[in-house]
């Protein structure tokens, strides 16, 4: 049963936008990763068919305690895989409904005029558009090493280093064992798509983090000043948290929240592997955190990456499942507005980054606009990353200050980022955040956006 539980957990993580299939499988701590990866991949491939079977057989209505993702995994192996390899109540449950599920499968084949299970699959449903063109991004973990040493390590492994990229087209042209330094982010290396580093020494030791470029933008643009107190409001799986720690050089304090105990346990393991020390994890709904608690009186930076539709994630779900219903979008947007408004109520807050891996205006520009109308006298949008090619949709005046990302335009997952800063009496003058890798974010002892950038010293821990 452990295999099915682990597969269901991976599917739930994909639905929340926690990461790609490989990352979630390798972070699952399930001992047989190849077996788990195969089951998850095949369940995803058959996902549109499984949705129809579950609905037609009314399985979830009949078994209200059966989690939907676990139902998918069990039904996949029961009807399309090698048969259930578990015992206990879930096997009894699946077999109890087997005749109804098989009848529904037969009806579906007749309806679609096919004879084989494979013929129920449409090739266009098998993968998200853009998945094949997004490169493998590798963030160098500066808590343990530096960019130069990681480059030297890969060169010793037979990779050819081509220097810093000058354009997105150079990233698109990567092939074989060649890699580049990203043109925008100073600690991000770029390899050809499908390059796998999950078994590489640098990954298993925490010297590198496998993280999409767009996912690196929130922490980079938050740019917390040295020794700051920072909140990561919806933190799991923890890649952004480890990025914040690297920017802080493990000084200051990070408060990280998530409601799921298992996700926090996995996150704790990952953060320890990455060498993160100055953090506190809390199994708590961020909306239930009291901004007036003295513990958070020094919090000046907040990274808010709330639950979203995940519609921007590639290598993820079949296309049918990437389009949430209008009702689900409304529910997500309502939660996101509450979370953003709540985050802006922390008394010492100076800068906040709001981000999603969603393509939908309802979860992005509309959320920011609604909250700015509520809090606009105290906070304003910052023109973040002026040279970034994709800007926010023209949903309201100033929305171009926001960033968007996409597989086609930026060779990343689909993403949205907005940077808000406090303004008004006693606040600092307006600022723009960095435009290129050569212009690192502004760091200082406090909120001084007009100050000159400080050069960050690199650790010289050799990677042997």
Automatic annotation (TrEMBL):
<keyword id="KW-0597">Phosphoprotein</keyword>
<dbReference type="Pfam" id="PF01189">
    <property type="entry name" value="Methyltr_RsmB-F"/>
</dbReference>
<feature type="binding site">
    <location>
        <position position="258"/>
    </location>
    <ligand>
        <name>S-adenosyl-L-methionine</name>
    </ligand>
</feature>
<feature type="compositionally biased region" description="Low complexity">
    <location>
        <begin position="428"/>
        <end position="441"/>
    </location>
</feature>
<feature type="binding site">
    <location>
        <position position="305"/>
    </location>
    <ligand>
        <name>S-adenosyl-L-methionine</name>
    </ligand>
</feature>
<dbReference type="GO" id="GO:0003723">
    <property type="term" value="F:RNA binding"/>
</dbReference>
<feature type="binding site">
    <location>
        <begin position="234"/>
        <end position="240"/>
    </location>
    <ligand>
        <name>S-adenosyl-L-methionine</name>
    </ligand>
</feature>
<keyword id="KW-0808">Transferase</keyword>
<feature type="domain" description="SAM-dependent MTase RsmB/NOP-type">
    <location>
        <begin position="126"/>
        <end position="423"/>
    </location>
</feature>
<dbReference type="GO" id="GO:0005730">
    <property type="term" value="C:nucleolus"/>
</dbReference>
<keyword id="KW-0175">Coiled coil</keyword>
<keyword id="KW-0489">Methyltransferase</keyword>
<dbReference type="InterPro" id="IPR048889">
    <property type="entry name" value="NSUN5_RCM1_N"/>
</dbReference>
<dbReference type="GO" id="GO:0070475">
    <property type="term" value="P:rRNA base methylation"/>
</dbReference>
<dbReference type="InterPro" id="IPR029063">
    <property type="entry name" value="SAM-dependent_MTases_sf"/>
</dbReference>
<comment type="similarity">
    <text>Belongs to the class I-like SAM-binding methyltransferase superfamily. RsmB/NOP family.</text>
</comment>
<dbReference type="InterPro" id="IPR049561">
    <property type="entry name" value="NSUN5_7_fdxn-like"/>
</dbReference>
<protein>
    <recommendedName>
        <fullName>28S rRNA (cytosine-C(5))-methyltransferase</fullName>
    </recommendedName>
</protein>
<feature type="coiled-coil region">
    <location>
        <begin position="91"/>
        <end position="118"/>
    </location>
</feature>
<keyword id="KW-0949">S-adenosyl-L-methionine</keyword>
<dbReference type="GO" id="GO:0009383">
    <property type="term" value="F:rRNA (cytosine-C5-)-methyltransferase activity"/>
</dbReference>
<dbReference type="Pfam" id="PF21148">
    <property type="entry name" value="NSUN5_fdxn-like"/>
</dbReference>
<feature type="active site" description="Nucleophile">
    <location>
        <position position="357"/>
    </location>
</feature>
<feature type="compositionally biased region" description="Basic residues">
    <location>
        <begin position="453"/>
        <end position="464"/>
    </location>
</feature>
<dbReference type="Pfam" id="PF21153">
    <property type="entry name" value="NSUN5_N"/>
</dbReference>
<dbReference type="InterPro" id="IPR001678">
    <property type="entry name" value="MeTrfase_RsmB-F_NOP2_dom"/>
</dbReference>
<keyword id="KW-0007">Acetylation</keyword>
<feature type="region of interest" description="Disordered">
    <location>
        <begin position="428"/>
        <end position="464"/>
    </location>
</feature>
<keyword id="KW-0698">rRNA processing</keyword>
<dbReference type="InterPro" id="IPR023267">
    <property type="entry name" value="RCMT"/>
</dbReference>
<dbReference type="InterPro" id="IPR049560">
    <property type="entry name" value="MeTrfase_RsmB-F_NOP2_cat"/>
</dbReference>
<keyword id="KW-0539">Nucleus</keyword>
<keyword id="KW-0694">RNA-binding</keyword>
<feature type="binding site">
    <location>
        <position position="285"/>
    </location>
    <ligand>
        <name>S-adenosyl-L-methionine</name>
    </ligand>
</feature>
